[in-house]
């Protein structure tokens, strides 16, 4: 089976260029360097049709940058994102529309001065997927699909609650009939009971519309619930990719293990927390070798110098850890 | 044993132009020494306002209009602002969600900590206050506290800043700490560290802790007792194990059902239909009636009173009868 989306050696750097003073001082023999953050560092993976791939990691690990590059909002510094459009039924749609993104904050991702009907139909009108005469009917159909009251299409975003606004965001993404959705922390800003509604909506839409998701979240219980496969990131690199059963039962990388142990869980009940020590290092000067070695309890001298490669340790299960070589 | 804190029928209302907003409407709870109590609810349920009411930080147009807050037998609602000022940060301390907002960005950590000590006891010398601050910083797991004392808040990471605010809350060895979403802004591994420190501190210093959060899984891991709030009232209150494993109130059940859990992976989540009603126009009767699956005719007439079950739980629902444990 051919993957629907292939991401190969994708990297993104953010450079803070030198200011005038530093440039001048450099001319005078000082040594000021540009500060570079490797937000995403040589990341490769594949997503197959109909899959939900979860991306987890803590803040600053590059998961949002990765999502934006996959959605085509942010150009990569190196590498590329390949979308296999030969697999889709409708060949007339421009490739750029096949991937859509749903954002975290339902308050800032909608134009406050536009009515819902205009928010939802702007893209399909521009790309001439519908005619202006069909606008009303089309908006009603899309809004109905995401569980919004179609009576409300002439309202403005501020007249809706957070959960409903997130539904508007989803309706806007679905309006151009995408096949691939990138959800960047799409339920993080919502209340628990509303989170459940939106998660269920995502799963229902996947079945109805044959969608494929890249689901980015810091919330491990959500990722465990929805994903078929999980990508774990740490400081810009993928440390582990695993099918969901292996991720839950047999996490390989010490970081994944620590992450899973630290999650508060309902079913565990009262317990003593035994956290991993240390902070997430600054991405401006990441540790050498394996990025995780200063916090890892199994670290060896080799971990400090040599970057571990992502290797397959079981079918579909990849991990970047030197410990796997010794076993 | 008398509890450290006993709240009886607390009512905090906000008198807005649009009408009276009953943010807290008849909340009763107690916390014993060294006990961790979790107060859980969605946004707008009044859980933070309950915390603010205890520590006397309710701003106009809000006002405590009824009930009493007994701290070791002393009613806090009768204190003058000056007395409350002495009380706050001394006997009761609060930790807020966002440590960047609680720390003064232009003062060194040292200055802020010494100030907090001397504000309550001016007789303590600067040197002593400095030593105590340093020791407290060490206690919450900050390495090389002597050097870190000289730093400014922006030089710390989010997790470290939250540790500093925990240290400041601990400075005067309060009997009660109110923690309002203290780990919500933190990453999972850092959240684990902060919870670990708080658990240890409560165990070692016998400080009582009221942990306010929207995350049931967090309180399930640390609290002895859990109170679930909805639209200004506690709808279910009881021992952690009982509430989590066998919720009675339909709202608690719904809330637990909407949290993704490992043993129900891939199944659709149970969801509570609709959304939290506006506090300005709550329905007559039970506030949860519009979203409830067990709705009866009575529910829309009068709000349900508290029923005590056999296992000592307090539940506000008509479907629970005296002695019912199901």
What does this structure look like?
The complex is a heterodimer of chains A (327) and B (326). With 327 residues, chain A is of the alpha/beta class. Chain A has helices spanning 20-27, 63-71, 116-126, 135-145, 162-174, 192-209, 220-226, 244-249, 254-262, 301-305, 323-326, and strands at residues 5-16, 35-47, 52-56, 78-83, 99-102, 180-184, 212-216, 229-234, 237-243, 311-314, 317-319. In chain A, helix 3 (116-126) packs parallel to helix 5 (162-174). Chain A has a domain at 5-88 and 179-264 and 276-326: P-loop containing nucleotide triphosphate hydrolases (Rossmann fold, 3-Layer(aba) Sandwich). Helix content of chain A is 31%, strand content 21%. Chain A is globular, with a radius of gyration of 22 Å. The mean pLDDT of chain A is 89. An eight-stranded mixed beta sheet of chain A has the order 5-6-7-3-8-9-11-10, with helices on both faces. A three-stranded antiparallel beta sheet of chain A has the order 2-1-4. Chain B is of the alpha/beta class and 326 residues long. Chain B has a domain at 99-171. Chain B has helices at residues 47-55, 81-87, 99-102, 109-120, 126-139, 145-148, 158-170, 188-205, 216-222, 240-245, 250-257, and strands spanning 5-16, 19-31, 36-40, 62-71, 74-75, 92-95, 176-180, 208-213, 225-230, 233-239, 306-308, 314-316. In chain B, the strands form two sheets. An eight-stranded mixed beta sheet of chain B has the order 6-7-8-3-9-10-12-11, with helices on both faces. In chain B, strands 2-1-4-5 form a four-stranded antiparallel beta sheet. In chain B, strand 7, helix 8 (188-205) and strand 8 form a beta-alpha-beta unit. In chain B, helix 4 packs across helix 5, helix 5 packs across helix 7 (158-170) and helix 7 (158-170) runs parallel beside helix 8. The longest helix of chain B has 18 residues, at 188-205. The model of chain B has no long low-confidence stretch (mean pLDDT 88). Classes of the chains: A alpha/beta (327), B alpha/beta (326). Chains A and B meet through helix 6, helix 7 and helix 9 of A and helix 8, helix 9, helix 10 and helix 11 of B.
